[in-house]
Amino acid sequence: MVFLGGPRQVGKTTLALDLISEDNRYYNWDSRLDRKLILDEKLPAKPGLVVFDEIHKYKNWRNLVKGLYDKNKSQYQFLITGSARLDYYRRGGDSLQGRYHYYHLHPLSLGELLKFGGSYSLDNLLNYGGFPEPYLQGNKKNWRRWQSERIARVIQEDILNLERVNEISQLKLLAEMLENKIGSPLSIKSLSSDLEIAHKTAKNWIQILANMYYCFLIPPYRAPKVRAVKKEQKLYLWDWSLCENKGAKFENLVACQLLKYCHFLEDTEGYRMELRYLRDTDKREIDFVVLKEQKPLFAVECKSFDTTISPHLKYFKERTDIPMFYQVHLGSESFQKNGITVIPYVDFVESLDLP
């Protein structure tokens, strides 16, 4: 089996329908008719690929899928898709370990658009995000309407189906507050104070939003010989177009590109990949460090249009074992100095062949 997870409206259903030849091979748990067919375990008469969409909303979905797979694996292949973390929502029953591969479907990235070899708009990607519909439309009015509908469905439908959250209005307010927290160490204490909720509740709600592919957190990199922070995590959104600040929006875009790179190598090659950031107790910081099998591959600092090398890059270059340091920007200037590469974002993505 293959589990395909990713944010709502990123294109999972479109991809699934493109893989099957007949409509009766697609089952959506949100459809009453399909729901009955799933529970009755009625598969198509002809063997082949079968798609179950949003089945994780059923509390015993794991046992049901496991039974279907074990009984029919010689004739049928199963693709399970969902807008929540399917590896997290596995409730009760026997383990599915060894029966599936997990793949992440990300929004469109610059790397993906470059690989198509066609035209692309970095401005559209920044301003409208990587979700196919608003990016391709490139229209601010449609983007606003799409955002409103998507957030309402994520919070009022998906979360209510999977979690026990009574204060939906407060959770929606938290989601809006996160738009101004991009790229900074996240303070749960500050959020709980602003919302007047318990620290544990705020922490739980952040995890719920992460499980729904609304946001993601990256931990600090504990570099040897550096008094690095150990616990503070940085938060980013899967849809960077929600960021109002242009610098934060660019940083979030790069974060999503690097996370996609990490997930790609994990999903296709089986490497253990990590996306982290580096910050010491004196508040010197590098935005991102990419690790492969616990070893750093490269570090990235985002500076929008500033090509003056950050002194923090120089500091950590001398004190860590990170082999490559990049400072990416939205301009056109490119140069190397003291082992640090200053490079336009487009060239950075092309040079590393990022997905």
**What does the largest sheet look like?**
6 strands, mixed
Roughly what is the average pLDDT, rounded to an integer? 92
User: What structural category arises from helix and sheet content?
Assistant: alpha/beta
| Helical content class | 40-55%
The general outline is globular
List the secondary-structure elements in sequence, H or E.
Answer: EHEHEHEEHHHHHHHEEHEEEHEEEH
Q: Per DSSP, what share of the residues sits in E-state strands of 2 or more residues? A: 15-25%
Question: What is the CA-CA span between the terminal residues?
Answer: 24 Å
Count of separate DSSP helical elements: 13
Number of domains: 2
Number of separate strands: 13
Radius of gyration: 21 Å
Order of strands, main sheet, comes to 8-9-10-11-13-12
User: Which blocks of ≥5 consecutive residues have pLDDT under 50?
Assistant: none
Structure notes:
- The chain has 355 residues and is an alpha/beta fold.
- It has 2 domains: 103 residues, 3-Layer(aba) Sandwich (Rossmann fold); 242 residues, no CATH class.
- Helices cover 40% and strands 19% of the residues.
- The chain is built from 13 helices and 13 strands.
- Strands 8-9-10-11-13-12 form a 6-stranded mixed sheet, sandwiched between helices. A 5-stranded parallel sheet has the order 2-3-4-1-5, sandwiched between helices. It has a two-stranded antiparallel sheet with strand order 6-7.
- Helix 9 crosses helix 10.
- The radius of gyration is 21 Å and the shape is globular.
- The protein starts with a strand and ends with a helix.
- The model has no long low-confidence stretch (mean pLDDT 92).
